[in-house]
Amino acid sequence: MNDKITLQTRREFLRAGLLGGALTWTVPAFLANTFSALHSEAAQSGTQAATGRDSGILVVLQLAGGNDGLNAVVPYNNDFYRRARPKIGVDANTILKINDDIGLHPGLAGLKDLYDAGNLSIVQGIGYPNPNRSHFRSTEIWQTASDSEKFERYGWIGRYFDNCCGGADPTVGVSIGTQMPQAFSAATPTGVSFNNPQSLRYNAGGQGKNGAMSADEKTYRELNQPEETDNSGATIGAVSGPTAHAGTVVDFLERTALDAQVSSDKILAITRQVQNKAGYPAGQLGNSLKMVAKLIGGGLPTRVFYVSQGGYDTHTNQVGQHQRLLRELGDSVKAFVDDLKEMGASDRVLLMTFSEFGRRLTENANGGTDHGAAAPMFVVGPKVKAGLHGRYPSLAPADLVNGDITFNVDFRSVYAGVLEEWLGTKSAPILGRQFEPLLLI
Amino acid sequence: MLSPLPASKWNYSTAAHLLHRAGFGGAPAEVEELVKLGPDGAVDRLLDYEIIPDDTPAPAWAKPDPARADYQRQIQALNQKERLATTDDEKTAIAAQRRELQQQFEREVTLQVQELRAGWLERMATGPRPFQEKLTLFWHGHFATSAVKVREPYFLWRQIETFRTLGAGNWLQLLRAVATDPAMLIWLDQAQSRREHPNENFARECMELFTLGEGHYTEMDVTEAARAMTGWSLDRPTESYLYRPPIHDNGIKTVLGSTGRLTGEEVLEIIVAQPQAGRFITGKLWKFFAGDDPDPALSDALADAFNSAGQNFRPLLRVLFRSGEFYSDKVMGQEIKSPVQWLVSSVRMLQRPMPPPAVSVEMVRNLGQDLLAPPNVKGWDGGLSWITTNTLLTRYNQASLLVMGQGNLPPAGGAGPGQAAMARSADAMARQMPPININNIIPASGRQDQDQLLAALRKRFLLAPLPDDHARVLRAYLDEREQLRDDDIRHVIRLLLATPEFQIC
Question: Do residues B127 and B133 lie in contact, with contact meaning Cβ atoms separated by under 8 Å?
C-alpha cells in the first residue's frame, strides 16, 4: 500500500514537474528531498536520507579484463615472483616501495602520492571461493556479489538502491559509459548512464508561443509518459529486469524515457556551470572521472557513480600495455582526488577499484599472463584507513591452486564494509548474508 | 512443441513480425507480399536465398596483398635497426620513420574498416537477401571478432564472408572454418599458441562462448583442448591459415571424456557431439531471432530439430520461423531492436536511402553497436541492455535526423582521437541530409482523413500497440495543424519514432 502511494506520488510529481513547464535546473534539491522524505521505507529503516546532498558518495571503478595484481602491487623481493616472471617481472629498482617486501608498479605514481598522503588503502589478496576464470562469469560474480556457483539476478548496487533508495531520484546512480553495468540491475531499475551529457537530451524542436513548450515538445513528452490507468503506479513498481512478461519491455522503455527527461536538464546544466579544478590526463578514464567530479561539485544527489577502464586482458606483450594502463589509472585517480579537494567535496567521496580476477603467477610464452584469481583492490579517499590491509597471498608453489595465488579476503567483506560504514546501511539484506565487514574507513 | 503456425493466423501482423525478425522489416507493400505467399512461401522466400542473385561487389582491396606483408617486414626491419642503432639521434630518427609508416598504415586500415561497416549496413538495407545478412549479423555477434585487435580489414571481410557462405549450413563445418579463420587466429591468440606454451584463449572461449556454455566443461578440458589446438597458425606472407606440425602437441590428451592423440579438429568434433552443443547454439539462435532464452522444453525441442537435421542451420531455422512459438505473445512485439535493426529497418520503413557512410556507421556506434568492434569476446549483450537513458534519447534524436534531414549528429562520446575526427565528418554530412519524401509514404489521397492517416502511419511504423491515450495525443497534434503539409506529416512521423513503442519489434 505504502509502495503504491509513493510510486504514484512520484509519477504525479514528475508529471507536474515536466508538463507544468518547470524545466529549469532549480529542481534537484527539491526533487532530492521530496523523494527521500516521501519514501516511508527509507525513513523507517533509520538509514540516512538516500539522496541528501551531504551523504557519502561511492565511486566504483572497474578495471575490465583482469588486472594483473601481481604487477600492480608487487612483491618485489619475492624469489618465487622473480622466477615465475623472468621477462615481465617489474624491475625492483623502479618499484615505488611501500615496505621491504611490497611496492607499487612505477606507473602508479599517482596512487603512491595518495598513499603517502594517507588517502589510499590497499587491500591485498581479494577474491572468492572457487574462483571462475571466465571474464564474464567472474565479472558477473563481482557485480552481483553472488557465490561462485549461484546466479543472482540483480546487482549489488541495484539491491542497495532497491533496499535504501526506493522512490529516489533516478540520478541516485550514475554510470559513465554506453551501457548500464550489471551491478545496477535491480527489481526497480534506477540510475542513468551516459557518455556525453550533450546527447542526454531530446531536441524536440518547434517554437512555442511566449517561451512556452512547443507543441512538438509537449507531444513528445506525453508520448513518453506511462499510460494513465488505475494501476499505473503498480506498473512502474513491477518493472523487473530482463525476463519479459507481456508489456514489460514497454514499461521498461517508458521508465527509462521518464528518467531521461528528469535527469537530462539537470545534468546538462551542471556540466555547463561547474568547472573542474584539476588537470586530468587525456583518455577515457580521465574524462569519466572529470565528469563525475563535476556532477559531485554540482550537487547531483547521486550515491553511487560507476566508471570503468578497459584493456587489462594482457595475454600478450603485457609490459608496455600494463604500464600505460596503470599510469592512466594512477594519474586519473590522483587528479580526481585533487579536483574534489579543491571543490571541497573530497571528504564525501570514496573510490573503490575492482577487477574480475588477477592473473596467473607464471608469465606465458607471449610476454603476457593468463586469467588468474586473487588480486588487490584500491580504496581511495581522505577518510580511509590508509595502508596495507589483509595479507599478501603466498607465492610458494605449494600454496598455489591451479597456478594461482589464493585469496584471504572475500570481496564481499569489502562491500559489506563500504555498505555499513560508508553508505550507512545494513549489508546482510543486500549481500544475502552477513559478511565480516572489512573496516577501511 | 514447434508445431507450425496455423495458416489461419497468417496475416499482416505475423508477416510483419517475420520480416522484421528474419530480415530488417520493410514497407507495407513488402509485408503484403509475404502475406500473399502464405506462411510456408514467406519463410521459403526469405530462407532459400541462393536462388536470388546477389552481385554486391567485394571491396577492391579484399584479397591477399603482398604490400601488407611487406609492411610487416618493414616495421620489423626498422625495429631491428633501432635496436642496433648506436646514437640517440639515430634511434629517434628511426622511431620517427616507423611512426610515420604506422600512421599511414593505420589511416588506411581505419578507412577500410569504415568502408566494410558502411557497405554492410547498405547491403542489409538494400541487398536482395535480407535473411542472409541477418544471419551473418548473428554470427558476427556470436564470434564477436573486433577490428580493435585485428588490424587487418581483409581478414575481417573474409570472416564476414565465411559467415555469409557457411552461416546456414552445418555446425561443424562452420566451426572448423572459424577456428582456422585468420581474423579469429589473431583475435583469440591461437596463431601464437605453441606446443611448449599453449595459449588457452581460443580453447576456452570456444567452449564457453561459442559451443557449450559455462559449466559444461572443466578447466582441465580447456587446458587439454588448448594443447590439441596447437599447430593452427597463420602464414603472414600469403595472409592465410597454415597448419604447422612442429608446433603441434602430439601427446595424449583427454577432452570432455575422450582420450587420444587428439588434434584440434577432433576436439571440435568431440565438442559438437556433446548433447549440450545442440541446446547451446539453438538457444542462442532462438534468443537472437525470438528475443528471449527458450524454456527447457523448447530448448530440447530446438536441439532435437537441429540434431535430426544433421546439425544444419537452415532446416532448423525453417522449423523455428514456421513454429507457433515464434508467433506467440511472448515473442511478437517483445524485442528491443538492436541499433543495427533500428537503423536498417527505419531506413526501410521510411523508404529513404541509407544515410552517407560516415553517418550510418556513426549512428549505430552512438547507440552501442559499433559493427566489427563488439565490446568484448561475448559480443553484444542485447535486449534491455541496448537501452539506457542516453541511448534512448540518442535513438530519438537520430530518428529526427533520418526523418527531417539537415540535423546534427552529436557524438555519443567515449571515442578515441581517430573516432573523434570521424564523428566530426559525420556531423558535417548529417547537416546536408535531405528529409524523407512523404509521397513514398502517404499518397496525396491518404491525407484527407486524419484518422486514416494516423492508422496508416501506425501500421507502417509500429509493431507494438500504441496506448489509446498516446494515440489521442497524436491525433490532437494533427488537429492543431490547419492543413497537412509534407512537413507536418514528417513531424508526426518523427514523433512516432520518438516513442517507446517504436523501439520494439
Answer: yes
User: What pTM does this model have?
Assistant: 0.77
Q: Which three cell numbers stand for residue B51?
A: 536462388
**Residue A284 forms contact with B (CB below 8 Å):** yes
Q: Looking at the 3D structure of chain A, how many domains does it have?
A: 1
Q: For residue B73, what is its C-alpha cell?
A: 617486414
Q: Which residues of B touch A250 (CB under 8 A)?
A: 464, 500-501, 504
pLDDT digits (tens, 9 = 90+) for B115-173: 999 999 999 999 999 999 999 999 999 999 999 889 899 999 999 999 999 999 999 99
Q: Which of B192, B390, B400 sits opposite A194 (nearest CB)?
A: B390
Taking the alpha carbons of A128, A133, A137, A138 in that order, is the dihedral positive or negative?
A: positive
Within-domain flag for A405 = yes
- Domain assignment of residue A186, yes or no: yes
- Asked, for residue A437, whether it belongs to a domain, the answer is no
Q: Pick the residue from chain B with its C-alpha nearest to A194.
A: B390
> A241 and B196 in contact by Cβ < 8 A?
no
Number of A–B residue contacts, CB under 8 Å: 172
CA distance B251 to B248: 9
Q: Where are the alpha helices (DSSP H) in A200-349?
A: 215-223, 232-237, 248-273, 284-297, 318-343
Amino acid found at A36: S
* Domain boundaries, position A232: 2-431
Question: Are B393 and A260 within 8 A, CB to CB?
Answer: yes
Angle at A134 between CA A128 and CA A139, to 5 degrees: 60
Residues in chain A: 441
> What ipTM is given for this predicted complex?
0.88
In a domain, A18, yes or no: yes
Q: Does A370 contact B at CB distance below 8 Å? A: yes
Strands A304-309 and A173-176: parallel
**Cell numbers given for B1:** 512443441
